[in-house]
Amino acid sequence: MSDNQRYFGKYGGRYIPEVLHPAFEELEKAYEDIKEDRSFWDELDELYKDYIGRPTPLYYAENVSKHFGGAQIYFKMEGNAHTGAHKINNAVGQALLAKKMGKKRIIAETGAGQHGLATAAAAAKMGMECEVFMGEVDIARQHPNVFGMRLFGATVTPVTDGTKTLTDAVNAALKNWTERVEDTHYLLGSALGPHPYPSMVRDFQSVIGKEIKEQLFEKIQRLPDSCIACVGGGSNSIGMFNAFLDESVQLIGVEAGGEGANSKRHAIRMSGQGRLGIVQAYKSFFLQDDNGSLLPTHSISAGLDYAGIGPQLAYLNEQNRVEFTSATDAEVLDAVAFTAKMEGLIPALESSHALAEAYKRAATLSKDHVMVVNISGRGDKDMFITAPFFDGEDWLAFLKNEIIRLEKEV
Ligand SMILES: *Cc1c(COP(=O)(O)O)cnc(C)c1O
Questions:
Q1: 382: closest CA among 342, 325, 343, 339?
Q2: 28, 65, 78, 87: which is the annotated catalytic residue?
């Protein structure tokens, strides 16, 4: 493969240590092979359908559309997918690829635990061994996901280096891979990292946009005017946008505005805040200090709380093909409450960034403007963050009672 195919413009590439070259060569070849292999995609389609529950619905949000009196708003319901978010599309795709490669073992890194959970589920389904590397700090604060991964049979290995969070977990997973290349596949969770991950993860997630195109055509026989998605590493957004890159459809990515763009407590990599650099083996925009070290980020949603962004999105921004904006924690909580009350569904905090942007725009648009918002996940997982906020005293009383009850039982 020529070098320029590993890049999107000047972004992407593969900046890895020598010891990992064989592993990446093998993975890249396997990925090139399955791209053309009809039987692989047929098998994956079966898993998408029967295991994940695809296609996820494209739902006309009639109540919110009428409320704003502008755009017709549709929700792509990725939260209806098995394990509650789009992450499973990529996890199952890569697990199937690993199995075809003859691998017996899957490793992954995880921050908040959502990717670890999806990976552990996919490994269990495919009958493969699974080890998830997770910072010690994240293990302590994300216990429900740790419990879930263990239930799926995965080993959760604490990482005690550095800040004991996601960045260190990535390094630990890469190190483990160098030691176990023969039998192990490293299942990376977003459309970033060294080639071929950004392209491969996009391809497994592009089912989102493909379905939107078909479903909207069936409903109203046309393309959308705009598509909006939240952007962490970039997998749900590029998965949605990919089908529309060559069409005249406006594409909007929403980053985590945290406590505000000027607060230093956010995860806004685009809009001039991030710097071009090479970190964790790929070239893109990162929130980093003068020495090139990653800066701490903040978001109410764990899934958007990351200092880097996928290289294809950085390129599409430079080409003015994807427009970037952000939503603050406060705007996101409002969007959760509003959506729950109006439509009877609870979106994930991540996805609610996209909703906040949709609601800012809706009233200003004409009634024939068709907008699709990617609801990347459902909000059940966020209960420990949203309940104290919406239900303070009563939630605290419930937790206290639970502790008393459990101390008697355990
Ligand atoms: C992980 C996650 C995200 C962010 O990751 P991307 O790779 O940017 O899609 C968004 N939404 C949900 C529900 C997530 O779990």
A1: 339
A2: 87
As a whole number of angstroms, the distance between CA 200 and CA 69 comes to 40
Q: Which atom of ligand 1 is nearest to the CA of 191?
A: 7
Phi, psi values for residue 108, rounded to 5°: -150, 160
> 5 falls in which pLDDT band (50, 70, 90)?
confident
Span 105-123, pLDDT tens digits: 999 999 989 999 999 999 9
Above pLDDT 70, what percent of the chain? 99
Fold of 55-81+206-388: Rossmann fold (3.40.50)
Which listed residue (109, 131, 211, 350) is catalytic? Answer: 109
Q: Same topology for domains 8-49+85-201 and 55-81+206-388, yes or no? A: yes
Pocket of ligand 1 (CB under 6 A): 85, 87, 114, 190, 230-237, 303-304, 348, 350-351, 376-377
Q: pLDDT value at position 2? A: 61
Q: Is the pLDDT of residue 1 over 70?
A: no
Rounded average pLDDT over 166-182: 92
The topology under which CATH files domain 8-49+85-201 is Rossmann fold (3.40.50)
Residue 4 has pLDDT above 70, yes or no: no
Domain ranges of the chain: 8-49+85-201, 55-81+206-388
- Nearest atom (ligand 1) to Cα of 234: 8
The tens digit of pLDDT for each residue in 345-380 reads: 999 999 999 999 999 999 999 999 999 999 999 999
* pLDDT grade for 163, boundaries at 50, 70 and 90: confident
